[in-house]
Amino acid sequence: MSASLKRLKRVDRVLLSLLITLVVGGFFIFLSASLGLLARGTVSFTSIAFNQFFLGIFAGSIVAFVISRIHYKEWRKYAPFVFVMSLLSIFLVFIPGIGMHHGGAYRWVDFRVVTFQPVEFLKIGAVLFVAHLLARYANKIHSHKYFGLALLGVVIGAVSIPLLLQPDTGSLVVIVIAISAMFFVSGLKWRDVGILILVGIVALGVLAFFRPYVFARITTFIHPTSDTQGSGYQVKQSLIAIGSGGVFGRGFGQSVQKFNYLPEPIGDSIFAVYAEEFGFVGSVLLLGVLLAFILRMYYIAIKASDAFGALLVVGIATLIIIQSLFNIAAMLGVVPLSGLPLIFVSHGGTALAATLASLGIVFNVSRYTKT
């Protein structure tokens, strides 16, 4: 057996199996949900299938394979550069002729050949940079009273400015939670966690005051039935879809709500489509596989050979699970709508490719775990 094949065998097989299950299953869920848009005649099936499969799954898998062969410690040298470049890429959305305005926000960049959201690269860049900082300043975080909290505040401030300008509050919350989790496992004190939560609540209140859309989402969450034909429409239709699924669901492809009722059936609302077709049992199964996938990543983090590798895995795992749980919870009316995707399932070829690329780092870390 060649040396390369021996190295390949060291990739965590359990994680790989769970990933394949999520990607393949997610693609079929996506195809079923896309029938709702096709019936409306608003999109071309070829275009969305090409974007999801070739740009997302195929290209993302190739990039993940390549990255999985790059020693994860190499990323530490380039982490500050990657972070700065990912921050600067956010400002591309404001350049006329390149940036795309949709739904009241500037979040997309259109290079004609491909359209993508730069924030997907910022998520990875932030995790890389924070892992670099924590590995470098671990002693100061433990020895200096507020050093860790101050360092976290600086990173959050740097990320907040471009994302609030777009605006993209949902992605900002995800990044903040992910990097905060990395600081927490590095020894951030509970006192600091409490301060961070308090500051977060105050910041949310300020945002709600100055940003009407944030205030509207909060009020809709608190009073979902106050405007069922307006701001509460999506949640109402989502709950109807989920409830219609019952225990075992209507069956694959048989969702009714995805036709003319659910907004964004291949995006924000895709879990509602899935729950209608596969019911309570199918929903629990999806959550179970996703939870097993994340727990396996945290297990790899525990077994990582150094702090930098462990922190990378914790950050990437938290990014994935927070976005997915926020998406599902929003469709259930448990949290306000955020526009966050259900990872591996929702539409977004470049977002899926970026997620798979980040998992390439996790697979490389898994090759060097302690036995």
Q: What are the key terms here?
A:
single chain; 371 residues; mainly alpha; 3-stranded antiparallel sheet; 3% strand
Question: What does this protein structure show overall?
Answer:
- The protein has 371 residues and is mainly alpha-helical.
- It has one domain.
- The protein contains 14 helices and three strands.
- Strands 1-2-3 form a three-stranded antiparallel beta sheet.
- Helix 3 packs parallel to helix 14 (349-366) and helix 5 packs parallel to helix 8.
- It starts with a helix and ends in a 5-residue tail after the last helix.
- Residues 1-8 have low confidence and may be disordered.
Lay out the secondary structure.
Blueprint: H1 3-9, H2 13-40, H3 45-67, H4 74-90, E1 99-102, E2 105-110, E3 115-116, H5 119-136, H6 138-143, H7 147-165, H8 169-185, H9 190-210, H10 212-222, H11 233-245, H12 270-303, H13 307-331, H14 349-366
Antiparallel strand pairs: 1-2, 2-3
Helix pairs in contact: 2-3, 2-12, 3-14, 4-5, 5-7, 5-8, 5-13, 7-8, 8-13, 9-10, 11-12, 12-13, 13-14
Strand order, main sheet: write it out: 1-2-3
Helix content bin: 55-70%
Given helix and strand content, the structural type is: mainly alpha
Supply the number of helical segments.
Answer: 14
- Beta-sheet strand percentage? under 5%
What value does the Rg take, in angstroms?
A: 21 Å
Count of separate structural domains: 1
**Termini, distance in Å?**
22 Å
Largest sheet: 3 strands, antiparallel
pLDDT < 50 runs, ≥5 residues: 1-8
Strand-and-helix sequence, N→C? HHHHEEEHHHHHHHHHH
Mean pLDDT: 86
What is the count of β-strands? 3
Shape: globular
Q: Assembly type of the shown chains? A: single chain
